[in-house]
Design goal:
9 helices; 16% strand; 34% helix; single chain; Transferase(Phosphotransferase), domain 1; alpha+beta; Kinase-like_dom_sf; nucleotide-binding; 356 residues
């Protein structure tokens, strides 16, 4: 996303907190659907009032420029999907607007994870395992789609080879790194890494070499950082997915049903009285309050935007790996965490949603 970073100087919302939040989402995005873009209001056309609720007004509008689809290498510019129709939701003068905004953003993320879990469930219900499940094999258009099924095979087929295994090291289960049979539980481990990548907005192990030393550390319980802004229910799910003990990981159906339940609860709870009392919504709200405080602190510094670098030996394409004499996988109780900048502000902001 270096092209997005180079464009920081060409736009501003007029609010430092919003700018920082948008920049962080762009710097940490792994695909176009995972980040926010600032759109000046004058770029919208044919704006039509739809309705008004307890928290603001809803409009329909056209955005001729359209959202980004991909970077055109030959023309060195972004290719955009033109003339989409969008919904604009205004949150007027809310004293807790950042919480409202982040709650909706978290709901969308969990919804995408539920869709991915549904795709993985289809694969597993067909008696197959993916064997190369990582964020680079997820395609986003309207909905996320699991791609690159070239290594997909029957779950009961024994194919461990002496020359090594193929995959992207940060997403590979420790038992697979040791040369054991690839199972559905190994796909679940990979899903745990992906869940954390999306929610914590940090690419796993991007600052260290992807070599045998990392493989040893993974077997000894090292896992990616989990942001303090991730709700505890989701932290618990992530840690279960990447548990060193295969039998402790949830099944694909359990994973899908849990995410489906949370999506439903997050959609139904918002009313004119605020958040209703259920666990996932309360945790999302509390985590956003924590994030707001850290975002406020970040205003006095440059933040981490200019310090995000990927180690030259951090490799995120599938390759042949062959590690000998790795230790038996164990869990570690030492969970470190990264910080997600957030903030507290009051203004009118429009949240953009594509209408398909």
């Amino acid at each position: 996303m270096l092209q997005l970073k180079d464009n920081f100087k060409n736009w501003t919302s007029g609010n430092d907190i919003i700018d920082e939040f948008i920049q962080q989402s762009q710097l940490n995005a792994v695909c176009y659907i995972n980040y926010i873009e600032w759109i000046p209001f004058e770029k919208f056309q044919n704006i039509t009032y739809i309705a008004e609720g307890g928290f603001g007004k809803v409009y329909a509008a056209e955005w001729p420029e359209g959202n980004i689809e991909y970077w055109d290498i030959e023309d060195q510019k972004w290719y955009r999907y033109h003339y989409n129709k969008y919904a604009l939701k205004s949150l007027n003068n809310s004293s807790d607007i950042s919480s409202d905004f982040l709650n909706e953003f978290m709901q969308k993320k969990i919804g995408k994870l539920r869709q991915l879990a549904s795709g993985l469930l289809d694969i597993h219900n067909a008696g197959l395992v993916h064997k190369d499940f990582h964020s680079g094999n997820i395609l986003f258009n309207i909905d996320p789609v699991i791609s690159d099924l070239g290594m997909c095979q029957p779950a009961n087929k024994q194919t461990v080879k002496e020359e090594g295994i193929y995959g992207v090291l940060p997403y590979m289960a420790p038992e697979v790194l040791r040369g054991h049979q690839y199972t559905k539980a190994a796909d679940i481990y990979s899903f745990g890494i992906i869940i954390n990548e999306l929610l914590s907005e940090e690419i796993p192990f991007n600052d260290i070499p992807h070599d045998k030393f990392l493989a040893i550390k993974v077997c000894n319980g090292l896992r990616p950082n989990i942001s303090k802004d991730v709700p505890k229910l989701l932290v618990d799910l992530i840690t279960k997915c990447w548990d060193a003990e295969i039998d402790n990981r949830p099944t694909t159906n359990e994973l899908h049903q849990l995410l489906k339940k949370w999506v439903y609860e997050l959609r139904k709870v918002k009313n004119v009285e605020g958040w209703k009392s259920n666990e996932i919504c309360s945790q999302v709200d509390e985590c956003n309050k924590l994030g707001k405080k850290k975002f406020e602190i970040s205003k006095s510094s440059k933040g981490k935007s200019d310090n995000i670098q990927t180690h030259p030996q951090a490799i995120y394409t599938s390759r042949l790996l062959n590690f000998k004499n790795l230790p038996k996988p164990v869990n570690s109780s030492d969970l470190s965490s990264c910080q997600l900048n957030s903030g507290n502000f009051t203004l009118t902001i429009f949240i953009l949603k594509s209408i398909y």
